[in-house]
Design a protein that fits this description.
This protein is mostly helical and 143 residues long. The chain contains four helices and two strands, in the order αααββα. Helix 1 packs parallel to helix 3. The protein has a two-stranded antiparallel sheet.
């Protein structure tokens, strides 16, 4: 849970800074950037093990310490996501944002706004499946 908090916090902070640019100043989406998004999603849905890229997610999260309860962490994560999505609705209201490469994933490279949302969902699902594997539970069906 701490990892997801740090990941989302880092992503929303990055997007807040990126949202200050003009969409026309960023590279347009193309087949290569779309392919990176698809490959990232497929990789996150696989059982591949990932190493956290050097220098990523090392910053401490305000209000998160070793004694934080699971409820406290869940509340903090919900707040980070709520504030982050509210900021994104404000910063990315221009439809032009959907046609440019916005987020730089440390392994996949630059992604579109659409692929950024897909990454966020696939990243969470990846860790849910990882926890289920660790618990020895059966993987959920896609139904």
């Amino acid at each position: 849970l701490r990892h997801l908090i740090l990941s989302d916090q880092s992503l929303f902070n990055y997007l807040k800074r990126k949202g200050q640019a003009k969409p026309g100043s960023l590279p347009a989406c193309d087949l290569e950037s779309d392919g990176r998004g698809v490959l990232l999603q497929k990789t996150l849905l696989s059982e591949r093990r990932w190493k956290v890229p050097e220098g990523v997610l090392l910053m401490p999260s305000k209000g998160m310490d070793e004694d934080s309860s699971e409820d406290d962490l869940l509340q903090q994560w919900a707040e980070i996501r709520s504030l982050g999505f509210a900021q994104m609705r404000k910063d990315f209201s221009d439809d032009a944002w959907w046609s440019v490469q916005v987020f730089r994933h440390p392994l996949a490279g630059y992604l579109s706004l659409f692929d950024t949302f897909v990454f966020m969902a696939a990243h969470i699902r990846h860790h849910i499946l990882q926890l289920r594997r660790l618990e020895g539970n059966q993987l959920p069906s896609d139904s």
